[in-house]
């Protein structure tokens, strides 16, 4: 009997077929992402309603009806309010921001000396950009220039009083200058201080450990305003008679101490995540405590907690706006101070000024968070479980 | 010979400088000397300075007359009350705004966080835009935005915006009808308590029965019926003892009703909308943190999407969510001190006024610190209890 071979082997690959018509194209996307079910469709309608309600209003207010230039309040006020706009007009008063831009950036820094903060800003950007791009070489030199040389140069440029530069009191500083300088110094101080505190908290020496715990928990338990109050009211009492502290320096100390306590907790999280074998391996190689920490543990721990560190930076950048409470005028403070200017007081002025300030803060914070996400991806060694 | 001398030597134990115990003792002594030395120096300076400024230290000033008015007083307070009472009013205001803010922020935060995981593209994008905007601007700016940007430019009282249920909105705040409970309204409270007790009992029995026999009981709907039904029944039986005091428009202002001041409103809205952005991220991370296998396995067991969410995903997500949620609640409480910027009389603001009037800087800052530390500790204590109940029970 002849065997009947039923098996059949395909010898060539089938060509890839396009996805079914119901699964591709714009209509399928809409069906899947917008009207997947009855509930989804209702939500979509609701979402469209919200967007249609908000977006045209915002666009109208911020762009179409907005006033971009003008000499005084009349361009942003309706006829009833003593201006030139028709009754019922609402729109952003960018003219206000335009007119006060110098103040928003530098506060009451003398106008003929404003090239100094601008020069510092240029130096800062020139040093920061190569620091942030991973491919640019000589990171060590760059870091020394950015974190050691720049602060010294910036100090002499901004404060003056030497090399023929006119002395400018910190009381005349203001605006974005204060926001950026406070947060830069705060970041530069709080990171090393946070590392020391975190190491102290995990130290085997009981006294060092308890001092660190008390400091960290005390500072984390109270609001920054209380710390600033402390710095502005108590610090003068702490010093012998006759020694006075600059108000700016007091705020700087308050903000740095506050951020250091939060930084310490973030870094402690990283230290705890390093397996014990790493510590023991370093010990068995005969490394001392500081060698072990700086060569083996900290590089791994810091890498793990980059998102947390950047979040603390962002938090600190936002928190610098609180120095307003102890009557220093950072960006937000200057904007708020200018609401009272009778030359510009209209119902639209506060909103416009605040939205401008919000936009500046948002740019910096959003930039920082995006850069941290990028760094996280770049440093991801794939060992993460 | 040199080589023999070395051989004859005792095995070296190293210099005592390298002995870790002696090192640690040395460093700790150094730290103690430094810390206590600087504390002694600071205390000495403080005493010196206070004597020079003729400020008596101590907490005796708390008993003297405050002499300043407070705009929001949850308990009776006049300018004749003591400083202590002023501080208590401030503390109560802080607690009120913190609790209200925590509730509102949790509701908004959970809604937005779940929205960011929605199947719906549009909802997802709207929630993302919300989170990215509010996370990246300072809370103080949000407070100012509500206060000087939105609420201050509302119409004057005469042209108040009419809202449903006889409430009004104008630049002086938000006016709601005030509920006035008549005689016999205590019955409703009793009925509510009774209903809660009965619902708890029903839930308990239903769980026991399900363990014993496997039969389920509609606990949720029974509880809703009890908790809503019993008070309504009591309300009807006691002759509907509820009247409303509606705000009335007079020439220059609104009278009567329940008045929420713009300071409180802007602080509450700003704090809760700001914190909600962070809570949304926490909720999203929590739900994403539950592995997909869990919900797939539950589906394989035959559970539908509702029970999967309720019985499998949410209990596990809560474990991830609660610790960071606690720190957000603490942040909100601490951020409520920003009230001072718009003149809502919270603890920091009243303590600041007291501090300025009396010059008792050390005591004032000390009181503030202690009060916030206690608030933080109480909040973390409550959340730790919740966390312990949610935590994974291991052998």
Helix/strand class of chain B: alpha+beta
Shape type of chain B: globular
Q: Overall pLDDT of chain B, averaged?
A: 82
> What share of residues are in beta strands of chain B?
5-15%
Distance between the termini of chain B: 68 Å
In terms of per-residue confidence, which ranges of chain A show pLDDT below 50 for 5 or more consecutive residues?
A: none
CATH topology of the domain at 176-328 in chain A: MetI-like fold
Tally of contiguous helical segments of chain B: 12
The Cα radius of gyration of chain A reads 29 Å
CATH homologous superfamily grouping of the domain at 83-140 and 263-390 in chain B: MetI-like
Give a topology summary:
The complex is a heterodimer of chains A (385) and B (395).
Chain A: H1 25-33, H2 38-64, H3 94-106, H4 115-132, H5 139-159, H6 176-201, H7 206-221, H8 224-238, H9 247-273, H10 276-284, H11 289-304, H12 306-319, H13 331-339, H14 349-379
Helix pairs in contact in A: 3-13, 4-5, 6-7, 6-9, 6-12, 7-9, 8-9, 9-11, 9-12, 10-11, 12-14, 13-14
Chain B: H1 2-8, H2 20-53, H3 83-115, H4 121-135, H5 139-151, E1 161-163, E2 167-170, E3 173-176, E4 178-181, H6 186-213, H7 219-237, E5 242-245, E6 248-249, E7 254-255, E8 258-260, H8 262-289, H9 292-300, H10 305-335, H11 347-358, H12 361-390
Antiparallel strand pairs in B: 1-2, 2-3, 3-8, 4-5, 6-7
Helix pairs in contact in B: 3-8, 3-11, 4-8, 5-8, 6-7, 8-10, 9-10, 10-12, 11-12
Q: Would you give an account of this structure?
A:
The complex is a heterodimer of chains A (385) and B (395). Chain A is mostly helical and 385 residues long. Helix content of chain A is 65%, strand content 0%. Chain A contains 14 helices and no strands. Chain A has helices at residues 25-33, 38-64, 94-106, 115-132, 139-159, 176-201, 206-221, 224-238, 247-273, 276-284, 289-304, 306-319, 331-339, 349-379. The relative contact order of chain A is 0.09. By secondary structure, chain B is of the alpha+beta class. Chain B has twelve helices and eight strands. In chain B, a hairpin with a 2-residue loop joins strand 2 (167-170) and strand 3 (173-176). The relative contact order of chain B is 0.12. Classes of the chains: A mainly alpha (385), B alpha+beta (395). At the A-B interface, helix 2, helix 7, helix 8, helix 12 and helix 13 of A face helix 2, helix 4, helix 5, helix 11 and helix 12 of B.
